[in-house]
Specification:
The complex is a heterotrimer of chains A (about 350), B (about 350) and C (about 300). By secondary structure, chain A is α/β, with parallel strands linked by helices. Chain A has helices at about 50-60, 85-90, 105, 115-125, 130-145, 150-155, 160-175, 190-210, 220-225, 245-250, 255-260, 320-330, 345-350; strands at about 5-20, 25-35, 40-45, 65-75, 80, 95-100, 180-185, 210-215, 230-235, 235-245, 310-315, 315-320. Helix content of chain A is about 35%, strand content about 20%. In chain A, helix 4 packs across helix 5 and helix 7 (about 160-175) runs parallel beside helix 8 (about 190-210). The termini of chain A are close together. Helix content of chain B is about 75%, strand content about 0%. The longest helix of chain B has about 40 residues, at about 250-285. By secondary structure, chain B is an all-alpha fold. Chain C has about 300 residues and is mainly alpha-helical. Chain C has 14 helices and no strands. Chain C has helices spanning about 1-15, 15-30, 30-50, 50-55, 60, 90-95, 100-125, 125-140, 145-155, 160-185, 190-195, 200-240, 250-260, 265-295. In chain C, helix 12 packs parallel to helix 13. The longest helix of chain C has about 35 residues, at about 200-240. Chain C is globular and about 75 Å long. Classes of the chains: A alpha/beta (about 350), B mainly alpha (about 350), C mainly alpha (about 300). The interface between B and C is large, with 62 and 50 residues.
């Protein structure tokens, strides 16, 4: 596994709030995250947990003044992005960090041919001639597995299938050679068969272009297939982070465990579990650990303090009092709390 | 369906509509209580003169025969003679139309430029005081009676500021010293083509006030439509995507969003063209502008029914053609339209 | 006792609609311009109704001339001056509020009565009925509305009644189109299908299920069109096809003032200002209503 060379992106203690009609939404509560060169990080969690907001915050795309970052740092190759001006961020977007979204049809401008849309981005960032930009565009099309010809170039978004549209989006995002791609639920709007193709494309892009990726998804299975490392988010913070095989085989956080138990693993519908309770209202979030009202292992300390990340294994971090206590109590090798069902365990992990 | 199939179908529809327009105009004259023959011979005519006129005009024939003759003549270009000028109506119209078009087109161009820019700006600054002021301004544009605005402008620019001529199309002394060679029939354009600078400045100065009057309403409508259409476009995912790839705000507004928002704007430009075609009646009356509107209002007041019918058909035809052009432009602007 | 209990009963049954109405009212009244517009309209209606009591010279407002005082500039005697017949302009502006209001309310009401059911029927039945109705509206809409109205009055002869007829004839297709669009979008809805399978008569379905859904857009369009109709009627009077002297009508007053505009500016100015403000008010209210009633077009 091409693990950990240099740190490409590091997010430290990111806190963010939204002004809404009902009040202040404390959307991010101290997010910690790192992405290394050429690495695919899965950012997993239920909808509304702050995955997308984290992605948008990295690119400085949040609506101001409604959204306000109250503390933290977002370091891109050591540079704090939060200290940059709008103009600097604008230059950086699409050239250093790009993002693709869930609905590829909506993401493409319906009134311009796709080739021109890619070409415009290239010209914007590289300041090259139209001819050179066109060549780059064809290269980008080829890199995402689309025929690099005039026919593709001249077509409009509505003339492509869903999977091809997502490929176009990726071509547009990577045409200027961004080393980091944030893919926000890139397969959610697609058919299952097409999903696999797009996930393979993500792997191929990493292999060929060495593009590091943050794959935002609510689907643990998708993350398991594609990612090197996985970060599980709940209600605005990362609760567990580590290599995919580690986190999914030996989950420590009760939320990760519960999430894992929600996966089918060849079970019948009747056997499927759900996580009891609902996602908390972030206008008035639970005190201490935000998961405690839904947690089956809640302890006295949980409502009173926010758990700090502790090392569960090599490069495997978890923020949970119960898991830390479990780890602390066992003097010998680490004993995972209530291991999940055995059969499906190996399905998801990458080779 | 390809875009060309759409073009053909749309043109066929326009022809059909023109046919309907001619029919309604014919029926309107026949249904109304006033007797065209009586109008034709004048108010002091004896009954036998009216009867004679009725035979001359073919009004004694059955309605469907009259309709057939009317349509045949219409297609042939024989639109009857004006009762007032005694000239063929079509000649009169072709003589007066260019000056009106000059007025209408400049008004619409100005209205479109101002309306789109202001509309984009207000959409961009939604909810600010600029937005509120612009909203009052655009609503004012659609609420102000053009013929009253004309009088107010005359007071302001002629009587108070002494900046612009009060009425007419040219200054008589300039016109005598530097006569304009008629090529298109539009004085400003003709003066420009022939390099007749004194006449150009003079006719351009005369154009300003009537043009402003005519532009007020279209500007308001275009501005309002641009604003709402832009707000809708700016909320789309592709704007977020473009932003995520570093497209600067100005390009986002004026290229990515505006091209999407422009469809509805084009439609209202077509509609305001219709407004301008009749709006010019009032504006020309006040500014003594020798165009189609002036011809129309004088014809109406003298019950010159062949002229009224001719102007009506011409205005409707122009409007149908503009709408056709708008629809076709939209199909080329947004390739999805031809598909639906 | 019975009334209060039946009232509270009614309240309970209609709680949801009451809440919605209250919410809508709040949205509407948050729009400052819409509130200003509403106040102007109410005041104008009051002025029109009470004209004989508030006009300083009611007889002149109705048309009596007063040749001794021609062309008086605005003063404390005549706040807006006098016209070429010596009539008090203020009184005539006050009396002049009556015709635009009567014309615009009557005309829009008649247009709605003709256009709305026709649109509902065309959209609901679809097929040949729809085709015929829509082609007819196409032809009418091919004329710029005002020229159709002008031509019509020109042939009918100038009078306020004919102006009203002409505007109705040239305007109804807009509503047919509007309502047809709503009806087409509702035709296949489950509750409409359900009503059909249960054997509810088609006309009943149109009346109960289709038209109420068109209510919002139609009300919004009506409010905006009242302004347009006022402008159109004034325009027709201005070129001599509408109200005839000595009636006090704003369009006609501007026409009377236009020949004196550079010297006795007040003759035409105030009547035009009145039109402008009233139309502006209707447009503000229409915009405000649109935000509330027509969620498709958020401003």
């Amino acid at each position: 596994m091409s693990a950990a060379t240099a740190e490409l992106l590091a997010i430290h203690d990111l806190r963010l709030q939204f002004r809404s009609m009902r009040g202040l939404v404390k959307a991010l509560d101290g997010v910690e995250l790192t992405v290394h060169d050429g690495e695919i990080l899965g950012l997993v969690g239920e909808s509304g947990c702050g995955k997308t907001i984290t992605g948008l915050a990295v690119l400085g795309l949040l609506q101001r003044p409604q959204a306000e970052i109250t503390s933290g740092a977002i370091l891109y190759r050591g540079d704090d992005l939060l200290a940059k001006t709008d103009a600097q961020m604008q230059k950086l977007r699409g050239r250093d960090i790009s993002m693709v979204f869930q609905d590829p049809l909506a993401s493409l401008n319906p009134v311009f041919a796709v080739g021109n849309q890619i070409e415009d981005v290239v010209r914007l960032h590289k300041g090259v001639s139209r001819k050179e930009a066109r060549e780059t565009t064809y290269k980008a099309l080829a890199s995402v597995g689309l025929p690099p010809d005039k026919d593709t170039f001249k077509r409009y978004p509505h003339q492509f299938s869903g999977g091809m549209r997502q490929r176009v989006c990726m071509a547009m995002a990577l045409a200027c050679g961004s080393p980091l791609l944030i893919a926000d639920e890139p397969t959610t709007a697609l058919d299952v068969t097409i999903q696999a193709q797009i996930l393979n494309l993500l792997l191929k892009l990493r292999a060929e272009l060495d593009v590091a990726q943050i794959l935002i998804t609510h689907n643990v299975g998708v993350a398991a297939q594609t990612c090197d490392r996985i970060a599980v988010m709940y209600a605005g913070s990362v609760v567990e982070e580590g290599p995919v095989s580690e986190v999914l085989k030996r989950p420590h956080h009760p939320y990760t465990i519960a999430l894992y138990q929600c996966l089918p693993h060849g079970r019948t519908a009747a056997e499927l579990q759900t996580i009891p309770g609902t996602v908390p209202d972030l206008i008035d979030p639970p005190t201490g650990c935000r998961f405690h009202p839904r947690c089956s292992h809640v302890m006295e300390i949980c409502p009173t303090a926010k758990p700090q990340p502790v090392k569960a294994a090599e490069r495997h971090w978890v923020s949970c009092f119960w898991a830390a206590e479990g780890a602390g109590l066992s003097a010998g090798p680490f004993r995972p709390p209530t291991p999940p069902d055995a059969p499906g365990t190996d399905d998801g992990a990458p080779a | 369906m390809t875009i060309w199939a759409y073009v053909v179908r749309r043109i066929a529809l326009a022809v059909l509509v023109l046919f309907g327009v001619a029919t309604i105009t014919f029926l309107m004259v026949r249904i109304v209580p006033s007797d065209p023959a009586a109008v034709y011979v004048g108010s002091n005519a004896r009954p036998e003169q009216i009867a004679q006129a009725r035979r001359d005009l073919g009004l004694d024939k059955p309605l469907y025969v009259q309709y057939g003759i009317y349509m045949k003549n219409l297609v042939k270009g024989d639109w009857g003679d004006s009762l007032r000028t005694k000239r063929p109506v079509l000649n009169d119209i072709m003589h007066f139309l260019p000056t009106s078009l000059e007025l209408i087109i400049t008004a619409l161009v100005v209205a479109t430029i101002v309306g789109v820019i202001f509309g984009v700006t207000t959409a961009h600054r939604k909810g600010t005081w600029i937005d509120l002021v612009m909203r009052v301004f655009s609503t004012g544009g659609v609420s102000i009676p053009a013929f009253w605005l004309a009088l107010m402008l005359q007071i302001a620019f002629f009587r108070v500021l002494h900046l612009l001529p009060v009425a007419g199309q040219s200054d008589i002394f300039v016109a005598q010293a530097h006569p304009i060679t008629a090529i298109t029939g539009m004085p400003v354009v003709d003066a420009l083509i022939t390099g007749n600078w004194p006449a150009f400045t003079d006719s351009a100065r005369h154009l300003v006030l009537p043009m402003l009057c005519l532009a007020a309403y279209p500007m308001g409508v275009i501005m309002r439509m641009t604003r709402s259409s832009m707000l809708e476009a700016m909320g789309n995912d592709y704007i977020r995507m473009a932003r995520a790839l570093g497209v600067p705000p100005r390009t986002l507004l004026y290229k990515d969003a505006l091209k999407n928002a422009f469809g509805p704007v084009l439609t209202v430009i077509g509609l305001t063209f219709a407004y301008s075609l009749t709006g010019t009646f009032f504006v020309e009356l006040i500014f003594a502008w020798p165009g189609l509107g002036y011809y129309a209002t004088t014809s109406i007041l003298s019950m010159d029914y062949p002229a009224i019918m001719g102007v009506t058909i011409m205005v409707a035809a122009a409007y149908v053609l503009v709408n056709l052009a708008v629809d076709l432009a939209q199909a080329f602007l947004d390739p999805r339209i031809a598909l639906s | 006792m019975t009334t209060s209990s039946s009232l509270s009963d009614w309240r309970v049954r209609h709680q949801a609609s009451l809440d919605e109405a209250r919410y809508n009212a709040r949205v509407f009244f948050k729009d400052k311009l819409a509130v200003v517009g509403l106040v102007i309209i109410v005041v104008t209606i009051a002025v029109a109704v009470l004209a004989p009591h508030i006009a300083p010279y009611p007889a002149q407002g109705r048309g009596d001339s007063n040749l001794k005082e021609r062309f008086q500039a605005p003063s404390t005697h005549h706040l807006m001056g006098t016209d070429n017949q010596g009539r008090d302009i203020l009184s005539r502006v006050i009396y002049g509020a009556r015709i635009p209001l009567i014309i615009s309310f009557t005309v829009t009401a008649v247009i709605v009565i003709i256009g709305v059911p026709l649109g509902g029927i065309a959209g609901y039945y679809g097929g040949r009925v729809d085709e015929v109705v829509m082609r007819i509206t196409d032809v009418f809409l091919a004329f710029p509305s005002l020229i159709l109205a002008i031509t019509f009055v020109a042939f009918l002869g100038p009078s306020i009644r004919n102006v009203m007829i002409a505007i109705v004839v040239s305007w109804w297709p807009w509503y047919t189109r509007l309502v047809r669009g709503v009806a087409v979008s509702l035709r296949e809805r489950p509750y409409v299908e359900a009503a059909r399978t249960m054997g509810v008569r088609n006309l009943t379905i149109i009346w109960r299920h289709i038209l109420p859904n068109a209510f919002g857009p139609v009300i919004v369009q009506m409010t905006l069109d009242i302004g347009t109709v006022i402008l159109a009627a004034a325009a027709l009077s201005f070129i001599g096809l509408g109200a005839q002297a000595p009636t006090a009508e704003w369009g006609l007053m501007i026409s009377e003032g236009k020949d004196y505009i550079l010297q006795q500016w007040w003759i035409g100015t105030f009547a035009g200002l009145a039109i402008f403000i009233l139309v502006l008010a209707f447009n503000f209210v229409g915009d405000g209503l649109r935000d509330v009633l027509d969620p498709r077009s958020k401003r």
